[in-house]
Design a protein that fits this description.
The complex is a heterodimer of chains A (114) and B (114). Chain A contains no helices and twelve strands. By secondary structure, chain A is mostly beta strands. In chain A, the strands form three sheets. In chain A, strands 2, 5, 6, 10, 11 and 12 form a six-stranded mixed beta sheet that branches. Chain A has a four-stranded antiparallel beta sheet with strand order 3-9-8-7, with no helix packed on it. In chain A, strand 5 and strand 6 form a beta hairpin. The N and C termini of chain A lie far apart (41 Å). The mean pLDDT of chain A is 93. Chain B is built from no helices and eleven strands. In chain B, the strands form two sheets. In chain B, strands 2, 4, 5, 6, 9, 10 and 11 form a seven-stranded mixed beta sheet that branches. In chain B, strands 1-3-8-7 form a four-stranded antiparallel beta sheet, with no helix packed on it. Classes of the chains: A mainly beta (114), B mainly beta (114). Chains A and B meet through loops of A and strand 5, strand 9 and strand 10 of B.
Chain lengths: 114, 114
């Protein structure tokens, strides 16, 4: 069985603050993929990152960074110097067991105030 | 990059009518398409998986007679909500995959049944 937990339901920050969105996953498989998606108010899912289980290197893309820790089964997402346009719901997802159908977490709503 | 479109983006209908939602892969052939449903402030729930030319596979609890899925070609899948009722109001998202690795999501369709 696979499961994704995003314990933070809603996070509210002021612009320029750094914010970390937590994601904890469960799977018995050694090969799996982890994803982050952004869903702005318009509703469209925006793909942010896909990481396979054999690549534990942290990744940085502009103001976004991801911290993959297999030891704690976590794949956390940090936004540095947040902006109002970052306000959205962010979903963490997991594909494992040879399935290419992701299991989504419940999402974290990020509100960035000006 | 791979683009998936949905039409309509928003639909309002009267209770008892049927609504058809189209999902198209614009620049690739999608051997598999997926239909998700998302209630407000909740995660995406997979409804069904459809492979071109064969019957859709529905997730447990999804009524196949209520949510008719047709995947007639490698670029088009349709979801028909038959005899829609207010509780069917939701955000419906499709995704398409050409390989067993990545799903590309459409922009979603907001359905409101009065």
């Amino acid at each position: 069985a696979q499961k994704v937990t995003q314990a933070q339901t809603e996070i509210s920050v002021v612009e320029k603050e750094d914010v970390t969105l937590d994601c904890v996953y469960e799977t018995r498989d050694t090969t799996y993929y982890l994803f982050w998606y952004k869903q702005p108010p318009s509703g469209e899912l925006v793909f942010l990152i896909r990481r396979n289980s054999f690549d534990e290197q942290n990744e940085i893309s502009g103001r976004y960074s991801w911290n993959f820790q297999k030891s704690t089964s976590s794949f956390n997402f940090t936004i540095t110097a947040s902006q109002v346009v970052d306000s959205a719901v962010y979903f963490c997802a997991l594909e494992s067991g040879g399935s290419y159908i992701p299991t989504f977490g419940r999402g974290t709503s990020l509100i960035v105030h000006p | 990059g791979a683009v998936v479109s949905q039409h309509p983006s928003r639909v309002i209908c009267k209770s008892g009518t049927s609504v058809k939602i189209e999902c198209r892969s614009l620049d690739f052939q999608a051997t598999t398409m997926f239909w998700y449903r998302q209630f407000p402030k909740q995660s995406l729930m997979l409804m069904a998986t459809s492979n071109e030319g064969s019957k859709a596979t529905y997730e447990q609890g999804v009524e196949k007679d209520k949510f008719l899925i047709n995947h007639a070609s490698l670029t088009l899948s349709t979801l028909t909500v038959t005899s829609a009722h207010p509780e069917d109001s939701s955000f419906y998202i499709c995704s398409a995959s050409a390989s067993r690795e990545t799903q590309y999501f459409g922009p979603g369709t907001r359905l409101l049944v009065l």
